[in-house]
């Protein structure tokens, strides 16, 4: 399936699997390397989501990996992500800070993307796979997914977001610390039980289909409502209740002036009339 | 059953179902409209909880809806909650901010109420039902409850508290975003599994009874201990651990001077002697 | 089993149950009093964890209680933890603030300890047992454990950390408020279901063994990775995502300069070679 | 001068000294008691500012005291502001918390008032005078003003806002702590030098006139711009720069849709044409 | 004077006025329009500082405007900064949020720039001039500078940073609100007295010379020390003291491993030996 | 003058210069080394203030240096404050973090000390002198004091508190960054003008005398009021206004129950009767 116009990348495949539904399917596309991330991959990853965020023709996004073997095996350690550099420890630290910061920025673009993102985890989903999944809004997994916060096993603390986000995403810190400190594998079923993913399906295909169905449903709703809901939930997670209520009232003071509320209300009372909502 | 003296409202029924136990039962009382909220309803709702909060004769509260059909169907959209107004977008925004703020304030009175509040969800519990339930301390549900964060379906992002509070109330953000973005129904059982409610009972009656039993138990304990526990848990939720520990030590530096500790200790060692605690 | 050299305490037993594995086993050692805490006990408790934190020979810690009857029954109320004092309410309050603060500090040493701490709950685990468990990184429980946030029953709001930490540790605030306001018992199984503990085993022995196995696994990994992971997860819990990402990049800018990454990578590609990591 | 219609109070005089300018002059009106505050006074004080905040006919406010002798001498200690009550220390504390909270709320209404407030300090301006002045946007003082954070001299820490706000209002914490800990008098000139006030005039009349002139100028500008500026400065004071920038962009995304920008721009290019702005 | 290699811009002139000193002079270069900012200008402005931040050959920066007439007259209102767009208010709001956010990002690049930035205010310095100056580390002004937070006069609240930053930059909020609400002009002398600028010189030339001298001095010091100091001061401004101390210890745990400390110490004891520091 | 009983230190001299006034004078006592700080000195420094904080016989503190030549010349760089250690950069970083943290803790004890601390700066007051002065409540300086944030000149960013606290202590960030980035000397007069100190006196003796007079005045007031004022001002500096108001009401709910308010009020109305206040 050809890439959406304007989305030509080497390591990212962006398609329109349900034409007319305003859903984009973003796939990590380096199957020969188990979809591992070199620097080139993460720069493209950031670029895709920056673009999607501003593309009024896309209203919901599904993310998965190309192929049957992996969502992603994580960082491509063969590609020299470590800044060799010379100079003393402080000078090497500056280089590393810059490199980590750039990597974090690219992955965070998925969280900042103003459209809902549904992440499909499948097969090998290690290390960076979890960092990425933490930036999605909704996570689904195929039954056979092999998940792990693997970083401790290569001698480092995960630095692309898992440790910053996982404690806010899953309710049990005992479980969070168990998997982060031990680097042990956990199954899709375990991920479901602790709430890391919210659905498990039999295989990758079925999971992708479930994700696309969900994306289509969301994309059919008012984008003012959907994008506002995403923004306000993210704000609520990181701020006190009082601050979040105030922000909500400022945000909605203009959102409620959209044509979407009367359009949606009309369809509530005439359920056979599907509302249409202008692009946003 | 007659309203408690001093609690005369048009849309709120406040009774004393277990005389002598210091438990108030607050019921949304507009069954002909599925307990939907017009502005008059939410003003009364705020007023009830402001009063309960300062009423030393009430030590715990149960909230439910009158009738079998609904806890509440949400906002009464026929009652013009939208500020029509004229003027440009900024001037309409000011009106909307004021209206949303007033509504938030009224619902938040339940969270600010210094007495524990147990919310019984039953039958139709849509939209605003979730905003309200998020302000309760403990949530129970009847088996047949029909729950949904419905706002997206009427073209808006929920603005009376669900998006500010739900991410802090339930452990799985994947589930939170699923139900908030899709506006889909979820059952009492699903609510139990993700931890949104902590008990499910067979029908409304049994759930109300379980809630009243729980309220009676709590109301029988030291109000200094109970109200302090509520305050400190809310503080802990919205502040760093270090700040919460400090606040706790300041709070308890006077609470521990109450007569309640010796009274409670005495009964621990003589279990047949039920302690009595002064009003607070 | 003799105490580790340098760890001689009256109420704390610190042993090395798996020699060569860098795992310390800290046991509350006052079985005749159900491991209840007097002031002398909590001062020693703080002291142990301050020492462990800086001891490069210890890489992971397991905590439990001596004997079959209790992890701990909580505060030893017979030992006058209440500051009697004279003077007016404000002067007594200063004394109480100081005493609570000291107690909080001692218990918090376990949270601040830079090594992962695995807490084994068993038998009677009331009140303070929960405050302590909240400071651990990972919680396991024996099947027959009797758990309760008991403080309300002795007329006070828990002030040594449960109310500050539990809302951030367990995903369901409805459950948190239920157990904190009602002071009711809950079982190991219930604790598992809500995510307070992450494993339940048949009896105390099996649970301790599971905890030691877990500790040995963690202690065999890079201490730079493990201690950094603990630090960054704690930081992520108490700070916004943006702040946590920034802190992570600063932290890892030097951690990545350790010899541990190449050592760990080498072993990834030669799985039969177990990496060794220098002390930290 | 008669009170503005709708502003009938016993202890507050609200006039319209510059008809047609949309400026309200609020005066504390209890000169026989040096404008000291009993509970009745502070309840009215809160009520005035709540009303002004929502009154589209008022665009700027000047606050001063009636008479030559005092802005205010502070709390009317003869009026039993201390909650006598009986019960133990914890129960008296609850009463006091309620009373302090109510008092703080009333004074804070001036800060929350959406219109700019200019405070004229003159003659005796002790204790509560500073709490009140801290809630104003701009402070002017007459030359002979006698200022002091007097609370320490009556045995208490100021609790109506001075200690919460002064460190954020004046640049020198050394000076702030000096005047708060010593309760010493300071002059208008000293207040000017440290930046607590921004203008000093020869006497009360001249200061009031300067304040009214300033209020008239501000009231002539776009209320969308003026009220937004007040809101965003307050937000900037209490939040990180990143959060404040984000909030600003959301706020202005609707404010910029007002008719005020084109109206103001038109007058910039035709300076003889005074723009008029719709009420807000 | 020719632009530094690699710094070719249409509206920004970047020179090396003190060769060998590692000081860059960035000048806003649109004198025919009083250095007013169109979108093209602010995009270049952001680009310059992003580049400078990562350029190890630049250790300190001076910013001023080309020509004698203006630092900058602010936004070029003739260049359609308002997003006309169609659609309802919510859709126009999304466009405006995006535009404001982009503008804020570009100006904030100066604050984020890891090298110290000294801003020279001179002649017309209105509106955006203050937003920009607030992002500098140190502000100097020529005697004749005409300063104003002008936005209110064109019907809007300043949204590119002044309102978010000024309350944290200048000690007197009374003064801050005076100039922001009234949009009145203030002089270099007044700016000096309130601490907005820290030096005033006779004319633009002398001020630029003073700024360059200061930049040369700073650029001669250890860049590890200088850039760390900037980072930690910014962090200290936006965070609690406890958090800032912790961040400082993590930051310096690697910075102190630089060769700069011994190099600097050597020169302290042999004052005739000027230390040299490696690039950073 | 002999040390106060119980205050025997090698490098700290603690005296009682105004017997009966409850004022302690703490002097850094290593004049032969210009009062420079080795590790032994800072450990004692922390110990003194921890003790003073809990000593009910001390109600206010003055800090200065022994001798005419220096308050302190800063860190004793000859005493190996740098952790040499071996191991890789990450392991050295852990040692440095520990060392910096310990040093910060010791200096911060002065800020945490519950009694007001007045710092007298005189003669050489470099580097650490500013870190220490930032922890005092009130700062005075002798005319000839030579002040500088000197750390940049020895190749490091100040890490014992100056960068975390100075931006909150002085109103002009332009000045703060100037002195921190340039490491230049500034005079007592300049310190006065920017508000870093609040009084300048002719020489050390006169400054100490002024500080002692101020301390005696403060020590004569209600310690409940004075210590509460210090606590609440510190809280106000680091928290939002809303949080600070809430904390204030909880704090004062018990403080107002002290006997100090009636005692102080009695003396207000009978000015010849000096109130006495119980120890705290």
Poorly predicted segments of chain A: none
Helix share bin of chain A: 40-55%
As laid out across the biggest beta sheet of chain A, the strand order is: 1-2-3-5-7-10
Quaternary structure classification? homohexamer
- Overall mean pLDDT of chain A stands at 94
User: How many β strands of chain A by DSSP?
Assistant: 10
Structural class of chain A, by secondary structure, is alpha/beta
Shape of chain A: globular
State Rg of chain A: 20 Å
Number of helices of chain A: 10
In terms of DSSP E residues, the strand content of chain A is: 5-15%
Alpha-carbon distance between the termini of chain A?
26 Å
Question: What is the chain-wise order of helices and strands of chain A?
Answer: EEHEEHEEHEEHHEHEHHHH
Largest sheet of chain A: 6 strands, mixed
Largest interface (C-beta under 8 Å): A-B, 58 and 47 residues
Keywords (chains A, B, C, D, E, F): Acetylation, Fatty acid metabolism, Isomerase, Lipid metabolism, Peroxisome
GO molecular function, one term (chains A, B, C, D, E, F): delta(3,5)-delta(2,4)-dienoyl-CoA isomerase activity
GO cellular component, one term (chains A, B, C, D, E, F): peroxisome
Subcellular location (chains A, B, C, D, E, F): Peroxisome
């Amino acid at each position: 399936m050809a890439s959406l116009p304007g989305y030509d990348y080497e390591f990212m495949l962006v398609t329109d699997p349900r034409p007319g539904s305003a859903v984009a399917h973003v796939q990590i596309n380096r199957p020969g390397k188990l979809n591992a991330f070199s620097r080139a991959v993460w720069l493209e990853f950031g670029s895709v989501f920056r673009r999607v965020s501003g593309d009024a023709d896309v209203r919901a996004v599904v993310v998965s990996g190309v192929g049957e073997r992996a969502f992603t095996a994580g960082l491509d350690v063969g590609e020299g992500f470590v800044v060799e550099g010379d100079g003393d420890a402080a000078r090497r630290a500056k280089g590393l800070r810059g490199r980590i910061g750039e990597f974090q920025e690219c992955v965070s673009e998925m969280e900042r993307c103003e459209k809902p993102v549904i992440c499909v985890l499948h097969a090998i989903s290690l290390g960076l796979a979890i960092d990425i999944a933490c930036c999605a809004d909704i996570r689904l997994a195929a039954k056979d997914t092999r998940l792990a916060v693997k970083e401790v096993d290569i001698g480092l603390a995960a630095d692309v977001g898992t440790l910053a986000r996982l404690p806010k995403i899953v309710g049990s810190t005992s479980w969070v610390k168990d998997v982060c400190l031990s680097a042990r594998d956990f199954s899709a079923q375990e991920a479901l039980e602790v709430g890391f993913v919210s659905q498990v399906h039999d295989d990758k295909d079925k999971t992708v289909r479930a994700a696309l169905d969900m994306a289509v449903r969301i994309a059919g709703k008012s984008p003012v409502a959907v994008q506002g809901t995403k923004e306000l939930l993210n704000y609520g997670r990181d701020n006190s209740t009082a601050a979040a209520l105030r922000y909500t009232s400022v945000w909605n003071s203009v959102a409620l002036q959209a044509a979407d509320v009367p359009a949606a209300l009309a369809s509530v009372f005439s359920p056979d009339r599907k509302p249409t909502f202008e692009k946003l």
